[in-house]
């Protein structure tokens, strides 16, 4: 019996747009800000579905595409009774509803020890998807701002009469404008990082006048749960809300304001804006290779502005702290005595921190002792008090989100029922500027941009009250070989050694240089690095404990 040989060549990557006819690309996928003046409803519905499937195709594996997988997050906010629900309902009817994710939140006070955006990261759309998000982090922000802005003397009198019932989340006396401005600045940076990591944003603000609002509040239609938990029947409250909203919209110029006076017209406007946002997301997903294959259509559009070239990346001089490795020894008895005392003290400090979130981040050369240090760090704790995350190569679904997403979703979270508020990372978000840089898993643009993204991420955590403690464990190359060979000869440690570990020894100098660049660019006042450079495992473990004790002691003293 003869076998049929499969000689089919694998499909070559192609641009998503090449899957459609030139006419379809021109009519439905080419960005057109004037579409609402040239498209009837039937044409709009067809264009929405076409763009939706084209965006989804950016993440497909077979046939592969040249486009970068890209998602769209639509933030929906604004006045109540302004037609938000009607607009999203129409959008869902006009696209494939299976591929449109819709989430809604109601504004609450920000949770303790975490940035205002953190609780929302689990709802992020995958690359290739479109998601509409009612409320989102702006509902939390507006809820909190309105709490400050509408506080009055009557509230203060009530609190003074019964101090026991003061809201534990009450904010210190401060001008709401300053609080709003500070939070908007942080959110702007967060959103820019989302966009840079292929999650495009469309921010829609629905608005109606006070008369229309009151008329709709009094009609017979059932009202949805209000996003900001304020009294929409109060003229004073509405005036203050409009003042807050005007301040927000002035500071952020990327909001699309939709007039909700006519709900049907508002829904059409919203659908046009979503179409344009999907079309722009498709444009942003094109790689340089994709663009070169589409020169035939470039004559139909204006020439794009040349990209501003970044200054070439300058590696730093490798510091002696990474090369001068201590070789001093410590006796086992001396080590055990010191270890027990330090572990006891660390456990006391961690339990006295009053719920404050703590994040330990461990990085270092292969076999530098990260696992052993973590084991001694948690030895005196109950397993329910902490979570350990061993970070390796990302899963497929993790690559379909912004780079930091898989770490955002592992942070301590007040919204969960977990007892633990301590997260320990064995390898971290710094993989982008270490292994991904060296192995070519990230482009030059991606890993060079990551330093600032990581600094902003850690700064947001610290600003919210989280304690971030970072370690770099260094050993020399000779000591690494000694530990590799010991692992190879020890059955219960062989699983720690992989072919990649041996191969990475050939790139030792590259890893040391990338570590030097990382330390120079991410050793910040808010999240400094602790470098532990010793070939003595026991001493490294004691040094890790000493630094953790110092950081927690200073935090408890309010330093």
From TrEMBL:
Residue intervals of the Polyphosphate kinase-2-related domain: 40-155, 181-283, 330-555
Superkingdom classification of source: Bacteria
Native species: Psychrobacter piscatorii
Protein name: ATPase
A Pfam family hit: PPK2
Entry-linked InterPro entries: P-loop_NTPase (IPR027417), PPK2-related (IPR022488)
UniProt lineage: Bacteria, Pseudomonadati, Pseudomonadota, Gammaproteobacteria, Moraxellales
Gene3D superfamilies, alphabetized: P-loop containing nucleotide triphosphate hydrolases
Annotated stretches, region: Disordered: 1-25, 285-313
């Amino acid at each position: 019996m003869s076998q049929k040989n499969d000689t089919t060549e694998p499909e070559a990557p192609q641009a998503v747009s090449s899957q459609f006819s030139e006419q379809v690309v021109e009519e439905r996928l080419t960005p057109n800000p004037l579409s609402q003046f040239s498209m009837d409803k039937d044409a709009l519905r067809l264009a929405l579905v076409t763009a939706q499937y084209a965006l989804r195709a950016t993440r497909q594996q077979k046939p592969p595409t040249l486009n970068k997988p890209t998602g769209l997050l639509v933030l929906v906010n604004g006045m109540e009774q302004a037609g938000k629900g009607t607009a999203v309902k129409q959008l869902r009817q006009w696209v494939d509803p299976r591929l449109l994710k819709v989430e809604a939140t109601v504004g609450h006070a920000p949770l303790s020890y975490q940035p205002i955006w953190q609780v929302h990261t689990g709802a992020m759309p995958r690359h290739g998807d479109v998601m509409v998000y009612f409320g989102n982090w702006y509902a939390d922000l507006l809820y909190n701002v309105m709490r400050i802005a509408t506080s009055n003397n009557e509230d203060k009198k009530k609190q003074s009469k019964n101090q026991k019932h003061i809201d534990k989340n009450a904010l210190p006396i401060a001008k709401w404008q300053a609080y709003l401005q500070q939070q908007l600045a942080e959110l702007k940076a967060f959103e820019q990082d989302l966009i840079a990591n292929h999650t495009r944003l469309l921010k829609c603000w629905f608005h109606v006048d006070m008369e229309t609002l009151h008329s709709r509040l009094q009609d017979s239609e059932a009202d949805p749960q209000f996003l900001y938990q304020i009294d929409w029947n109060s003229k004073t409250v509405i005036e203050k809300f409009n003042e807050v909203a005007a301040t927000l919209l002035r500071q952020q110029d990327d909001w699309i304001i939709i007039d909700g006076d006519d709900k049907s017209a508002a829904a059409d406007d919203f659908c046009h804006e979503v179409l344009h946002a999907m079309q722009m997301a498709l444009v942003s997903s094109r790689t340089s290779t994709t663009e070169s294959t589409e020169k035939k259509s470039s004559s139909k559009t204006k020439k794009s502005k040349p990209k501003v070239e970044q200054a070439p990346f300058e590696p730093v001089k490798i510091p002696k702290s990474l090369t001068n490795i201590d070789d001093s020894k410590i006796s086992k008895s001396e080590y055990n005595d010191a270890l027990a005392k330090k572990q006891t003290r660390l456990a006391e400090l961690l339990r006295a921190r009053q719920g404050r979130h703590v994040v330990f981040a461990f990085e270092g050369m292969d076999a530098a002792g990260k696992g052993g240090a973590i084991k001694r760090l948690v030895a005196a704790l109950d397993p329910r008090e902490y979570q350990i995350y061993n970070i390796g190569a990302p899963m497929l679904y993790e690559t379909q989100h912004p780079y930091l997403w898989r770490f955002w979703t592992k942070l301590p979270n007040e919204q969960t029922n977990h007892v633990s508020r301590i997260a320990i990372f064995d390898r971290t978000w710094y993989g982008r500027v270490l292994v991904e840089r060296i192995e070519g898993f990230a482009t030059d643009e991606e890993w060079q941009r990551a330093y600032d993204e990581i600094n902003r991420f850690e700064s947001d955590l610290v600003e919210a009250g989280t304690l971030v403690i970072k370690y770099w464990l260094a050993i020399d190359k000779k000591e690494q070989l000694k530990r590799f060979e010991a692992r190879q000869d020890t059955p219960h440690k062989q699983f720690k050694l992989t072919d990649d570990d041996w191969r990475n020894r050939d790139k030792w100098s590259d890893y040391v240089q990338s570590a030097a660049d990382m330390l120079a660019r991410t050793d910040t006042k808010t999240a400094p690095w602790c470098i532990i450079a010793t070939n003595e495992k026991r001493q490294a473990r004691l040094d890790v404990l000493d630094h953790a004790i110092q950081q927690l002691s200073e935090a408890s003293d309010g330093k």
